[in-house]
Amino acid sequence: YKFVPDRRGDYTSGQLYALKVLDASTREGEAVWVPLDRDAVQVNSDAEAIAQGATGWGRPEDVEINTNVGNTRGGQVMYVSSTSERLVLRIELDGDRALVSNFVKEGVNVSGLANPDNLSLDNQGNLYIQEDNGPGDIWVVRAGHPGARVAAAVDLFASLADCAAEPTGLYFDRNSQRAWVHVQH
Predict the structure, then answer these.
(1) Rounded to whole angstroms, how far apart are CA atoms 129 and 163?
(2) Which of 66, 114, 141, 146 has the largest CB neighbor count within 10 A?
(3) 60 preceded by cis ω (within 30°)?
(4) ∠ at Cα 50 (44, 52), nearest 5°?
(5) Is pLDDT of 60 > 70?
């Protein structure tokens, strides 16, 4: 979903949109943000999104937006984890349009990614994927080519030894000299 307030900075009213990928069979490629009926979303936004033909994914968990690199259209790049599909989407944002690709997908460009949950970016544009499983793993996708729509390589960055532990947050300071990780359970 995307929410655009009626008045800048005032999130009490506005327009809700849902992402619709034009190729419904692959859920990749050109996409548009379809406006949802304001009254209908007050009752059930999922039902309204489905009625408008929005594209669904399995258990989207986190969003990170890279404002520095990667969009061939000049805008921002958004990453979204889809936990139950073992997938991280890459979405090039371009106003009312977007371009969607399966950036990281188990069995395609990574082996062992079970439940991508939380996402983090460092100041160099490297994407870190924290898993919601035990033991919790943290994967890194190096920035590489800024316009790459599919990650060339995904490497294991860290693995927690406690089988019940789950990394739920990873934060880098502004100059990427330090990293902090929150461990749940």
Answers:
(1) 18
(2) 141
(3) no
(4) 105
(5) yes
- pTM score above 0.85: yes
Q: E-strand spans in the chain?
A: 2-7, 10-21, 29-35, 60-66, 77-82, 87-94, 97-105, 116-121, 127-131, 137-141, 155-159, 166-172, 179-184
Average pLDDT, the chain: 91
Q: What pLDDT does residue 31 have? A: 98
Bridge partners for 127 per DSSP: 121, 141
User: Which residue in the block uniquely carries the two structure tokens 């520095």?
Assistant: 68
How confident is the model over 92-150, as pLDDT tens digits?
Answer: 999 999 999 999 999 999 999 999 999 999 888 899 999 987 778 999 998 777 788 99
Taking residue 160's Cβ as centre, other Cβ atoms within 10 Å add up to 19
Q: Are 57 and 80 spatial neighbours (Cβ–Cβ below 8 Å)? A: yes
Contact at 8 Å (CB) between 34 and 54?
Answer: yes
List Cα–Cα distances, 149 to 72, 95, 104, 120, 157, in angstroms: 10, 19, 9, 18, 21
CA separation, residue 40 to residues 19, 44, 46, 158 (Å) = 17, 6, 10, 44
Q: What is the pLDDT of residue 184?
A: 84
